[in-house]
């Protein structure tokens, strides 16, 4: 494939935008080469400015569960735009959105809309601190909760990919208030609770991880977190920015059968527009201004365009018969195909999949269940695999430490082609 225009565009962008991109994860830094500049997308496909077309498994990093430019979502945005893009005053659609979220996620009593996943987790942590009147938070190595100072400690996603899990610019004081534990290792959490009795405001976790690749929590681990938080009067926050409305109508908490105190959302909830949200127990949420003293605000929060895109998306997910069953079938087909490829080529690798989130780890390990397991991966091999797949028309996330997202728009033909391309890309590694 010819990427001439993208290469030129990236050279130009680097003169005006730091690193040439507005978010590091979309650079191709870890896989080598220049990022592609996209021009348009429809259904399962994205097209770059050179006119190359790819089957897309990034889906804007998660939001596009219905596929790109779904006609109903496009229509909702267009219609809304005609009535005004923003008022900074209450609108009816915000209440409808809150009702729809509550219907799909029963742990939500009330919910506050914000503009990104980062805002959602930042605000949820402030609220948990205000509610408990404690300072400390426990997060897990390799989990990513957006770019708030408090969470850029042993962070996953782009921070991990680019080798800056602890970023400069976070004060020592802030870093001191963030404790890190090991995912799927309950004793590491128990120890922190013992060392910091009555000091821990919140435990925040990606209930199924995506930002160090896909890892499922062991039952005893996730149940143990709930129990420890109950015993210590600590707020359990599920960061479902990625998993919310993706793994099931009710997100990861539905499939795991665990009720968090607060949940954060993003991505799908905005249908491709910039949105986040956080919600949960009434008693905690009532602490928020103007009902209570914990301040949090936003000029564009509950923005009509974003609400229209998000609400249309959520309603389609809620009302389309067997939506998640069909998505599961497509995703299972892809997993099976990739597994067969590894077997046929006699290559090592681990495929973790939960619903429509999947990661192929290039490792000799038997299983990937922890951040330590993730770190056994050969990122060089991944990079070569990624590039060959790209050249053959399949766009996976440009990092070993991310999930691939299957959407409802991926057809049988798309999935078959992906399995074939993956076979070729794996074969090229030998
Ligand atoms: N939490 C999780 C679990 C995420 O995956 C992300 C984004 N990848 C965020 C928070 C941050 O969301 P945003 O990029 O919208 O700020």
From TrEMBL:
GO terms for biological process: protoporphyrinogen IX biosynthetic process. PROSITE patterns: AA_TRANSFER_CLASS_3. It is found in: Cytoplasm. The modification N6-(pyridoxal phosphate)lysine is found at residue 267. Its cofactor is pyridoxal 5'-phosphate. Pathway: Porphyrin-containing compound metabolism; protoporphyrin-IX biosynthesis; 5-aminolevulinate from L-glutamyl-tRNA(Glu): step 2/2. InterPro entries: 4pyrrol_synth_GluAld_NH2Trfase, Aminotrans_3, Aminotrans_3_PPA_site, PyrdxlP-dep_Trfase, PyrdxlP-dep_Trfase_major, PyrdxlP-dep_Trfase_small. It catalyses: (S)-4-amino-5-oxopentanoate = 5-aminolevulinate. One of its GO terms (molecular function) is transaminase activity. One of its GO terms (cellular component) is cytoplasm. Its EC number is 5.4.3.8. It holds the Pfam family Aminotran_3. It is an enzyme of class 5 (isomerase). Keywords: Cytoplasm, Isomerase, Porphyrin biosynthesis, Pyridoxal phosphate. Belongs to the class-III pyridoxal-phosphate-dependent aminotransferase family. HemL subfamily. Homodimer. This is Glutamate-1-semialdehyde 2,1-aminomutase. It comes from Tangfeifania diversioriginum.
């Amino acid at each position: 494939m010819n990427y001439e225009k993208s290469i030129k565009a990236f050279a130009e962008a680097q003169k005006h935008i730091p690193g040439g991109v507005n978010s590091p994860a979309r650079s191709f830094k870890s896989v080598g080469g220049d990022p592609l500049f996209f021009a348009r997308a429809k259904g399962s496909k994205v097209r770059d400015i050179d006119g190359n077309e790819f089957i897309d498994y990034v889906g804007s990093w998660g939001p596009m569960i219905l596929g790109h430019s779904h006609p109903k979502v496009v229509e909702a945005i267009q219609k809304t735009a005609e009535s005004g893009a923003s008022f900074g005053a209450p609108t009816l659609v915000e209440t409808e959105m809150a009702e729809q979220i509550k219907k799909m996620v029963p742990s939500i009593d009330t919910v506050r809309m914000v503009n990104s996943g980062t805002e959602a987790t930042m605000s949820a942590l402030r609220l948990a601190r205000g509610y408990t009147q404690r300072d400390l938070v426990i997060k897990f190595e390799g989990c990513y909760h957006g770019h708030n100072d408090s969470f850029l400690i042993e962070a996953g996603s782009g921070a991990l990919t680019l080798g800056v899990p602890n970023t400069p610019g976070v004060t020592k004081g802030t870093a001191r208030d963030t404790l890190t534990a090991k995912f799927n290792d309950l004793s590491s959490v128990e120890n922190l609770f013992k060392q910091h009795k009555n000091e821990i405001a919140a435990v925040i976790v990606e209930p199924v991880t995506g930002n160090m690749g896909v890892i499922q929590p062991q039952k005893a681990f996730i149940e143990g977190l709930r129990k420890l938080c109950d015993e210590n009067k600590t707020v359990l926050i599920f960061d479902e920015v990625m998993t919310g409305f993706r793994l099931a109508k009710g997100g990861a908490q539905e499939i795991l059968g665990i009720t968090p105190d607060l949940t954060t959302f993003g991505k799908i909830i905005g249908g491709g527009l910039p949105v986040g949200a956080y919600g949960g127990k009434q008693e905690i949420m009532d602490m928020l201004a103007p009902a209570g003293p914990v301040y949090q605000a936003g000029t564009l929060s509950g923005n009509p365009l974003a609400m229209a895109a998000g609400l249309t998306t959520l309603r389609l997910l809620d009302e389309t018969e067997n939506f998640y069953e069909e998505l599961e079938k497509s995703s299972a087909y892809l997993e099976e195909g990739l597994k067969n490829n590894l077997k046929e080529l006699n290559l090592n690798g681990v495929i973790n999949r939960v619903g429509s989130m999947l990661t192929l780890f290039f490792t000799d390990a038997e299983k990937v269940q922890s951040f330590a397991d993730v770190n056994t991966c050969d990122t060089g091999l991944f990079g070569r695999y990624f590039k060959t797949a790209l050249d053959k028309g399949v766009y996976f996330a440009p990092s070993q430490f991310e999930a691939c997202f299957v959407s409802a728009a991926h057809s049988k033909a798309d999935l078959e082609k992906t399995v074939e391309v993956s076979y070729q890309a794996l074969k090229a590694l030998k």
